[in-house]
């Protein structure tokens, strides 16, 4: 799955949007991962990860940190969001020091991610580069909607739900921040950037 | 699968805004699910979007129906690869698995993404185009689509699965770095022949300085250089040096 890779929207907005991941490799280091997962979460929380979660439970926008931690199993996938390059640097520095041996992935705009790696003293092993969308692009929703729906790479956020939320904001029935949380709750993984989403909603509504 | 119980449905149409692929439609004064278009993503069920609980689960009948659901609902683990989401590891654990080695390019084609969905007949067209251009399609222990592919050297899928609609599925494989331009040309051709979209990822192994010049060929093909990437930072152990 490449669910954090193909985000869209304004580049300057994407520069405030990073995803962090901890991965276990099947058959090699995928047993008794709980303590390591908790160390990843601790490092992410220490540098202010704005959202995080486990696909098996859900995101912290919907569930408490303790509830998610309590349900971690060897099948869990722990991941989250940063909004600043400095958080990426600090997170990688902490994880490198701990020598946990789990695979670590950071997704984002390469002009931001690669300098953060260098500053943290880690050398990229492999990169999955996004070459964007191909095929019948005229079938897709408008760019603003896509810039929000693509923040859930599994596409659990329906385009019509995005437009519904934006209408609610325009009518003054909810704030952009509350609307962003409602959308974030549909992304089970916790990689939806609700901070960026609220900024997009604000920029594209007459709230 | 999911179905709307007409005894409970009051026709409020609230559910329609929550369908990821616009498969819920009005039928008289009730709502119904287009079972041909539904991907079994279960958003309508998991999010409990119906105020009358009229959307109900129905047993998934047979292997292809279950495959459709597992591929479309990220909460499920794929039975063979053991991975949630779309069931593949791609670059995530490449520092340990060594799936894409130096001199290779990992081809990672997210069919139906972003958010439009894909009939497997279109995934087959792209898989066959890749195979013909020299891509070695990934085996079943690495990627779910291979379970529907009797012959990975051609990319052809089992005939009986072609009409299934998934939220997305990944066509995955590797080629040599010197084959990449040919593979991209094949994709430039087949993108005109499908009735959906795909998002393309290319996985490259970096050198000791974190560099790889292979993407220079994009310029000759008129393909913009990528600005986004999913970076495996090499902290997994045991570290694959190949």
Instruction: State the domain count of chain A.
Output: 2
Q: What is the average of the pLDDT values of chain A? A: 95
The CATH C-level class name of the largest domain in chain A: Alpha Beta
Measured distance between first and last alpha carbons of chain A: 36 Å
If helices are DSSP runs of H or I spanning 4 or more residues, what is the number of helices of chain B?
Answer: 6
Overall form of chain B: elongated
Report the β-strand fraction of chain B as a percent range.
15-25%
Order of helices and strands of chain B: EEEHEHHEEHEEEHEHE
Largest interface: A-B, 78 and 78 residues
Description:
- The complex is a heterodimer of chains A (207) and B (242).
- Chain A has 207 residues and is of the alpha+beta class.
- Chain A has two domains: 11-120, Alpha-Beta Plaits (2-Layer Sandwich); 137-203, no CATH class.
- Chain A has nine helices and six strands, in the order αβαββαβαβαβαααα.
- In chain A, strands 3-2-4-1-5 form a five-stranded antiparallel sheet.
- The longest helix of chain A is centred in the middle third of the chain and has 14 residues, at 85-98.
- A four-stranded antiparallel sheet of chain B has the order 7-9-5-10, covered by helices on one side.
- In chain B, strand 2 (24-27) and strand 3 form a beta hairpin.
- The chains are: A alpha+beta (207), B alpha+beta (242).
Main traits of this protein?
heterodimer, A: 207 residues, alpha+beta, Alpha-Beta Plaits, 2 domains, 5-stranded antiparallel beta sheet, 6 strands, 42% helix, globular, B: 242 residues, 4-stranded antiparallel beta sheet, two-stranded antiparallel sheet, 6 helices, 11 strands, 19% helix, 21% strand, elongated
């Amino acid at each position: 799955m490449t669910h954090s890779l193909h985000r869209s929207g304004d580049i300057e907005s994407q520069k405030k949007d990073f995803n962090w991941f901890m991965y276990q490799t099947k058959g090699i280091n995928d047993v008794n991962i709980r303590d390591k997962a908790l160390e990843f979460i601790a490092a992410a929380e220490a540098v202010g990860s704005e959202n995080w979660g486990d696909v098996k439970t859900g995101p912290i926008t919907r569930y408490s940190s303790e509830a998610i931690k309590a349900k971690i199993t060897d099948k869990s996938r722990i991941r989250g969001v940063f909004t600043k390059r400095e958080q990426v640097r600090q997170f990688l520095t902490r994880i490198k020091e701990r020598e946990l041996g789990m695979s670590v992935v950071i997704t984002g705009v390469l002009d931001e991610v690669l300098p953060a790696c260098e500053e943290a003293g880690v050398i990229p092993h492999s990169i999955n580069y996004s070459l964007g969308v191909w095929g019948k692009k005229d079938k897709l929703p408008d760019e603003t909607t896509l810039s929000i729906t693509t923040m859930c790479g599994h596409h659990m956020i329906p385009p019509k739900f995005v437009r519904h939320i934006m209408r609610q904001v325009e009518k003054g029935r909810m704030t952009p921040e509350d609307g962003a949380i409602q959308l974030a709750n549909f992304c089970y993984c916790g990689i939806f950037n609700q901070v960026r989403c609220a900024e997009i909603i604000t920029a594209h509504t007459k709230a | 699968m999911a179905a709307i119980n007409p005894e409970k449905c009051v026709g409020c149409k609230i559910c329609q805004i929550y369908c990821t692929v616009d498969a819920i439609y009005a039928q008289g004064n009730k709502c119904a699910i287009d079972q041909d278009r539904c991907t079994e993503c279960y958003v309508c069920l998991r999010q409990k979007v119906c105020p009358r609980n009229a959307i109900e689960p129905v047993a998934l009948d047979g292997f292809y129906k279950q495959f459709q659901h597992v591929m479309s609902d990220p909460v499920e683990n794929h039975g063979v690869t053991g991975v949630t989401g779309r069931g593949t590891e791609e670059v995530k654990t490449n520092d340990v698995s060594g799936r894409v080695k130096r001199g290779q390019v990992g081809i990672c084609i997210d069919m139906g993404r972003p958010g439009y969905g894909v009939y497997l007949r279109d995934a087959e067209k792209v898989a066959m185009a890749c195979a013909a251009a020299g891509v070695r399609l990934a085996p079943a222990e690495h990627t779910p689509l291979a379970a529907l592919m009797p012959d990975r050297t051609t990319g052809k899928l089992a005939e009986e699965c072609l009409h299934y609609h998934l939220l997305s599925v990944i066509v995955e494989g590797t080629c040599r770095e010197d084959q990449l331009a040919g593979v991209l040309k094949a994709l430039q051709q087949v993108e005109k022949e499908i009735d959906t979209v795909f998002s393309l990822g290319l996985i490259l192994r970096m050198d000791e300085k974190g560099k790889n010049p292979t993407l220079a060929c994009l310029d000759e093909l008129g393909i913009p250089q990528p600005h986004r990437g999913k970076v495996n930072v090499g902290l997994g152990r045991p570290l694959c040096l190949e």
